[in-house]
Target: Adenylate kinase
Amino acid sequence: MTTLNLVLMGLPGAGKGTQAQKIVAEFHTVHISTGDIFRAAMKNGTKMGIEAKKFIDQGNLVPDSVTDGIVEDRLAEDDTNAGFMLDGYPRNLEQANALDKMTAKLNKPINAVINIHVDPEVLIERLSGRFICKNCGATYHKLYNPPKVEGTCDVCGHHEFYQRDDDKPETVKNRIEVNTKLNTPLIDFYNDKKLLYTVNGDQDIDDVYKEIQKVLRAI
Ligand code: AP5
Ligand code: MG
Model:
């Protein structure tokens, strides 16, 4: 089987993290979420985390000079030799060009870009209803994806959950605006390279995954 080196793209709340959990469970590829890396650094109060927080709290992108370096270091690690999946990177053309250089240097070419398409009107409701397990990071939604037993994480059985700071309504609005503007050129970039597969993200979580499975099984 071909090594899967994937990019998962989609606007905030499109379902990148939700689908990533399923892809990892089936295809055992290494999940690299720049958002998760920044949140871990903020939680640990590292220098990079303190710097990133200024941008994330406003719903803006962390500068490419910081983000590109983090991804390059992560892709250079040996566990990605058997495949990786980038979630939330690249987000602009500069990052896409930087990624091209990194993957060429490391000889780990991207073989598919999965774009989860959702109309922007749906996203605010998705983000305002999201909550996350404090222990394992599993993501839920109060209406669309609640835990099977109320108040208990399906994955690890813990009972404490949190909402992300950047899911506040003011921040969400800017995140969606910033990313919408950058998304179209990125879609064109990967379409031109014949790497783009767009799936309909505005259907049940399992139906979105079925579309993704079809793409990945064909590679
Ligand atoms: P990041 O953490 O990547 O945030 P994001 O892109 O805004 O995306 P989200 O994680 O909010 O949404 P998601 O698509 O993963 O949706 P989820 O599956 O959780 O980045 C955070 C910040 O870090 C950025 O704003 C930026 O500042 C910085 N950053 C990150 N990468 C960067 C980069 N490359 N360059 C510069 N800065 C960067 O689903 C959302 C909710 O919907 C959940 O509640 C879920 O249960 C529910 N749901 C999912 N799918 C469905 C469905 N099909 N139907 C109904 N509900 C659904
Ligand atoms: Mg996410």
In short: The chain has one domain: 5-119+172-218. The helical segments are 16-27, 34-44, 47-56, 64-75, 93-106, 120-128, 169-192, 205-218. The chain has a mean pLDDT of 96. The pocket of BIS(adenosine)-5'-pentaphosphate (ligand 1) is lined by residues 10, 12-18, 33-35, 38, 55-56, 59-62, 67, 88-89, 91, 95, 126-127, 129-130, 139-141, 144-145, 166, 175, 201, 205, 208 (CB under 6 Å).
